[in-house]
Amino acid sequence: MAFIFYVTHIHLGYDALAMLDSECARVGIRRPLIITDKGVLAAGLVSQTVQALDLDAGAVPIFDETPSNPTEAMVMKAAALYKSEGCDGLIAVGGGSSIDLAKGVAIMATHPGTLTEYATIEGGSNKITAQAAPLIAVPTTSGTGSEVARGAIIILDDGRKLGFHSWHILPKSAVCDPSLTLGLPPMLTAATGMDAIAHCIETFLAPAFNPPADGIALDGLERAWASIERATHDGQERDARLNMMSASMQGAMAFQKGLGCVHSLSHPLGGLVVNGRTGLHHGTLNAVVLPAVLRFNESAPSVVADKRFARMRRVMNLAADADIAQAVHDMTERLGLPTRLSQMGVEQSMFDKVIKGALADHCHKTNPREASAEDYRRMLQESF
Q1: List of long-range contacts for 235-242, beta carbons under 8 Å, 24+ apart
Q2: Is residue 338 located within the same domain as residue 223?
Q3: Which parts of the sequence belong to the Fe-containing alcohol dehydrogenase-like C-terminal domain (predicted)?
Q4: Domain that includes residue 270, residue range
Q5: Three-state secondary structure of 282-351
């Protein structure tokens, strides 16, 4: 049986930020904590956000220590600030990392225990209640779609990169103003854009029956595939930026249907310590492993029966016999992104740890073909 649930209030367009103050009033947020990162703060995007609020700018507490991949330590630090400042809600301004960190804060500022207890694979989803702090998301990239998703990915203190899922941490409002992405650097535009493309493709291939999600994903794929190069090479191209922001949102709206091996691989890859630090970019990882996963999934019975690859070729404007995996690889290369894990510092000695994480990941079971440890090893080797 399909369960279809779309509840976020979404404001999408070049005037969307003007809706922020009324959305705070609608949700009941009077004393927000803004969650962001230092780059977004330096770019002036937080200042624009505060100006949209009918509040004294000096009275709005800001947490700007979001790392490139959100961590348990920063969730707990921000939650402590939320409590000490007497906040009653959250505004996340940034990419998926800031929005996911805010979701972690929404849990830990209002629930007892440790963050680990609320992880999906630890059976924690049902422990997250309506007491979660209300959250409004203001995305400044077009990639994760976290502004309309019920999940967050956070690196725990024990090194695991785990998912947290509950409708109670779904943002109450998504204020999607593409003007906030006009200054995004080319490589970040490309990497986050490939994340959106991966979401649209992977959720469309997931076997669950959810026709609305399929339609949303296909339309998002069409928009992103046609717009990503223009958005990357001309950051001021307003139509391309608008379509990329829409595709990002659509990918996440659709992936309530499920994702698959791309994400079950990219999650543990993102938790690796590479060159002395964690934080390989999630969207870039998705782009690198997507071709190998596409080849693995092309023969899945549900994919074949529903002619999923043929339908994707049509919206991607590819020839009827085109190799989609190769087309994705070529697009990634044209955008100037890495196309091999080895280019990102991943070593083959890390594969065992990644495979263990992939088999335990919440996306593993929703792939159209169940992957074995050896299947994952082949996909990693092909992507290396």
Answers
A1: 235/182, 235/183, 235/184, 235/185, 235/186, 235/189, 236/182, 238/14, 238/178, 238/182, 241/142, 241/178, 241/181, 241/182, 242/13, 242/14, 242/178
A2: yes
A3: 189-383
A4: 185-383
A5: HHHHHHHHHHHHHHHHCCCHHHHHCCHHHHHHHHCCCCCCCCHHHHHHHHHHHCCCCCCHHHHCCCHHHH
Question: Cα(360)–Cα(345) distance, rounded to whole angstroms?
Answer: 23
Residue 156 resides in a domain = yes
pLDDT at 279: 77
**CA atoms of 145 and 378, how far apart (whole Å):** 29
Report pTM. 0.92
Do 93 and 46 meet the contact criterion of CB atoms below 8 Å apart? yes
User: pLDDT by residue (tens digit) across 181-222?
Assistant: 998 999 999 999 999 999 999 999 999 999 999 999 999 999
Number of structural domains in the chain = 2
pLDDT at 132: 98
Strand ranges, E, within 72-134 = 89-94
State the burial class of residue 4 (Cβ atoms within 10 Å of its Cβ: 0-12, 13-18, 19+): exposed
| C-beta of residue 125 within 8 angstroms of C-beta of residue 67 | no
Residue 56 has pLDDT above 90, yes or no: no
Same domain, 55 and 16: yes
* Whole-number Å distance between alpha carbons of 288 and 209: 28
Where is average pLDDT lowest: 1-10, 121-130, 133-142, 239-248?
1-10
Domain check: are 289 and 171 in the same one?
A: no
Name the region of 276 (left: φ>0; alpha: ψ -120 to 50; beta: rest).
Answer: left
